[in-house]
Amino acid sequence: MSNVLAKAQDAKNASVKLATLTTEQKNMALNAIADAVWRNRLPIMHANKKDLTETERLLSKGEIKEAVIQRLKLDTAKITDIVEMIRSVAGLDDPIGKTQYAVELDDGLELYRVSSPIGVVGVVFESRPDALPQIASLCLKSGNAVLMKGGSEAKYSNEALFKIIKDASEDADVPEGWIQLLESRDDVARLLELNNHVNLIIPRGSNRFVEYIMSHTKIPVLGHSEGVCHIYIDRDADVDKAVEVCLDSKIQYPSVCNALDAILVHKDIAGVFLPRMVGKYSEAGVEVRGCSRTVALLGDAVKRASKSDWGYEYLDYKVAVKVVDSYDEAINHINGYGSHHTDAIMTEDTETAMTFMKSVDSASVFWNASTRFSDGYRYGLGAEVGISTGKIHARGPTGLEGLTIYKYYLVGSGQIVASYVGENAKKFTHKKLDKGWLEGIKR
Amino acid sequence: MSNVLAKAQDAKNASVKLATLTTEQKNMALNAIADAVWRNRLPIMHANKKDLTETERLLSKGEIKEAVIQRLKLDTAKITDIVEMIRSVAGLDDPIGKTQYAVELDDGLELYRVSSPIGVVGVVFESRPDALPQIASLCLKSGNAVLMKGGSEAKYSNEALFKIIKDASEDADVPEGWIQLLESRDDVARLLELNNHVNLIIPRGSNRFVEYIMSHTKIPVLGHSEGVCHIYIDRDADVDKAVEVCLDSKIQYPSVCNALDAILVHKDIAGVFLPRMVGKYSEAGVEVRGCSRTVALLGDAVKRASKSDWGYEYLDYKVAVKVVDSYDEAINHINGYGSHHTDAIMTEDTETAMTFMKSVDSASVFWNASTRFSDGYRYGLGAEVGISTGKIHARGPTGLEGLTIYKYYLVGSGQIVASYVGENAKKFTHKKLDKGWLEGIKR
Q1: What's the CATH superfamily of A229-380?
Q2: Measured between alpha carbons, how far is B392 from B394 in angstroms, rounded to an integer?
Q3: DSSP string, B215-255
Q4: Is A206 a residue whose pLDDT tops 80?
Q5: pLDDT for the residue B48
Q6: Which chain B residues touch A367 with a CB distance below 8 Å?
Q7: DSSP output for B187-217
């Protein structure tokens, strides 16, 4: 187990040098990794074969689902995708070294706030062999050292990919030790204790798993608990649009966090909207669970919702429906039962939309659009590091920026604080500067 | 104790409406608070008198220090300062509602990332009656509800100020319950458990206190552990500047976190720099604790440092000195023994300065300037919420921005995700937009 401490120490040491790499050095290393993955596609597929053999044994015993095999399998097409993904990360804007704030404190005394790597990141992820190269690429691009633990079904594939990435990057002058692979659940438990070495934990996987991580570490967690998503159909909604959006939000991909779980309908429009909506859901095989007023309106076409239906993430062809008296009731229901992930309003009234969006305390608030748009790729964030349901540091779909923090660079020529206090104190100018930190330093 | 839960629930309810207040509403409320504090200066000083009487009793028993009385005492001048501080917060830029990212996903489907309040903030602070109005003003300006617990020596002053601020703000239409006062240490222990109601804890006070908070809550903490500050005197330093900066960093105000604790000197300049530096320190009454090479150079003028001197925050007229062989050794020493607060280099060589600043993993890295500049006011951040030694969310001196997060507003006209997948899929345009979210919504 102290093996994990040694790995974390190595990663921490490497992180110091990693923070000094230029964009060109990082991109060259990423391209070298892409080349190496492609060059080694046969050994990678060979390792993956070993994982598949073992996993098929479990499948035959009924211990896992067929979908696991599909996710696990690496063929030439998937390796091509991986190689392209790594090259696309090389093509992204460098999130490090950006001047966020530049101010002259006094003549010749200049302050720059500059985006910087966080340091050492621990990532625990699902059994998808493409996850490892994706995480490694994003961490390298953002100058962070990384400790990774992948799903055990992908053990051999991950080992092969890890070794290739490690060797190719270190050959390309990325500091030795920047990438580390953990091997067991015990390793993860140990990782969670290393709050002096690890600056951020990113867990990927089931809600239960993420909550386990969150309650077992002092290290900040960028994690995602669940997505209980609502759509409120306002009195002033366009019914055609509302039906289309609620259908898409539910059935376009029901097993994911941004799928719809509950519809709240204003009482004045329920009589028009609900019969059409429930007809559409019925055609699509969606079970509707309604409140008493919904049942009164639609009778046998819906099941009666129980208390546990409110605030429940179905991940399935099921949806809850509640008739409300006002948008205030809808807002309170969402803030009380929701999970602060993604919630939408359907209305043609700008003021109502505005109040709803300001008042609903969710990472993503939508007006007249499907909840399924809530996703880093669709948001144009380039690459998704994760989805955060926290309200500190990063919220919602999180791109490379979520792997950065900043530091303050103060550039002087011998200034002392005593000159700025007491009688005859010099005054701070606090004049915004129109230049970046590199220009400021290489003056 | 469940009293605290009720207060937190009230604060959470208020936070929803607080997030919808306009800048004008918040500023009007702040000015109303300033007026009310001034109008009630006599009752405030009367309450303060009760605190002083009690505290003087403790002083006479030797249980507290004289400085506590000085910090505690409110007179007309201090109340004038408080009133001016509140008005200055009204004058600050509103940190909420700023568009950080605006992108068209497709024609008529626009995404805006907008700065938003965090929600409910818990602040535990020292016995300074001016702290309460400062924290309340900053939270109101940033649209956050706040649960506050002040030092017990200021109990009556805090109760008086709290009531005045609560009444004046609620009269000015700030949602009832947005501000709450906790009363005991038990209340604080209960607060730390309320991770479903409280989004951020800001502890102010001693290192030990902050560390206690950090290790007793799942709620994210914006806190500040300690400041072990270093200055590295490079081979290419200007000795005059180096002596001045090291003197100021140590003696300008030795009892604070950004005061100097250890000097690292390059061996090639130690023979010139150290005798002059130690002479100056000796005049100023600073005790120097040197490594073996320092002692060899200076003899009886310095004490021999023990192992515990490295990485120690003196908060006193003491400083450790170590001779190093290279700037690499200095960087490693600082990253190993420092507290990632503020560290400086004295050199005339740009490349060395650059490498040092990139490699030292501290919130503030200085080149040729006193460590004492590390402070939100001097940085021009307007008002300091706290100093963070964490690397997530906020780092270093933290202004109002540290009390904000963001949310994503997606504005559509009935778009569904199904249109963007499969055959004939529409493509996302991901075109940067040149407008703010309000303009986008009120189209």
Answers
A1: Aldehyde Dehydrogenase; Chain A, domain 2 (3.40.309.10)
A2: 6
A3: TT-SS-B-------EEEEE-TT--HHHHHHHHHHHHHSSTT
A4: no
A5: 97
A6: 409-412, 441
A7: HHHHHTT-TTT--EEEE-S-HHHHHHHHTT-
Contact B373 A415 (CB under 8 A): yes
**At residue B401, does pLDDT exceed 80?**
yes
pLDDT for residue B1 is more than 60? no
Q: Are residues B412 and A331, on separate chains, in Cβ contact within 8 Å? A: no
> Is A100:A406 a contact under the CB 8 Å cutoff?
yes
Q: What is the pLDDT of residue B442?
A: 84
Best of A120, A379, A421 to disrupt the B interface (most B CBs within 10 Å) is: A379
According to CATH, what is the number of the domain A2-222?
3.40.605.10
Rounded to two decimals, the pTM is 0.91
Distances (CA, A) of B3 to B7, B201, B221, B375, B406: 6, 18, 23, 37, 31
- Identify the sign of the CA torsion B389, B390, B395, B397: negative
Segment A173-180 mean pLDDT: 98
| Structure confidence by residue, pLDDT tens digits, A350-380 | 999 999 999 999 999 999 999 999 999 899 8
Domain extent listing, chain A: 2-222, 229-380
- Residue A307 DSSP symbol: G
- Three-state DSSP at B434 gives coil
Closest of A345, A336, A81, A87 to residue A232, by C-alpha: A345
Q: Do the Cβ atoms of A386 and A224 come closer than 8 Å?
A: yes
Max Cα–Cα distance, chain B, nearest Å: 84
CB B47 within 8 A of CB B160: yes
Q: Which residue has the tokens 């306009």?
A: B22
Amino acid A59 reads L
Q: Does domain B229-375 have CATH number 3.40.309.10?
A: yes
Q: B2-95+116-222+397-401 has which fold?
A: Aldehyde Dehydrogenase; Chain A, domain 1 (3.40.605)
Q: How many CB atoms lie within 10 A of CB B425?
A: 10
Name the DSSP letter for residue A417. Answer: G
Q: Side-chain half-sphere of A292: how many Cα atoms within 13 Å?
A: 1
Which residue in the set A20, A378, A441 is minimally distant from B428, CB to CB? A378
Task: For residue range B57-92, list pLDDT tens digits in order.
Answer: 988 888 777 778 888 999 999 999 999 999 999 999
What is the C-alpha to C-alpha distance for residues B338 and A1, in angstroms, rounded to an integer?
A: 27
Helix axes B327-337, B350-359, angle to 10 degrees: 20
Q: How far apart are CA A214 and CA A208, in angstroms?
A: 10
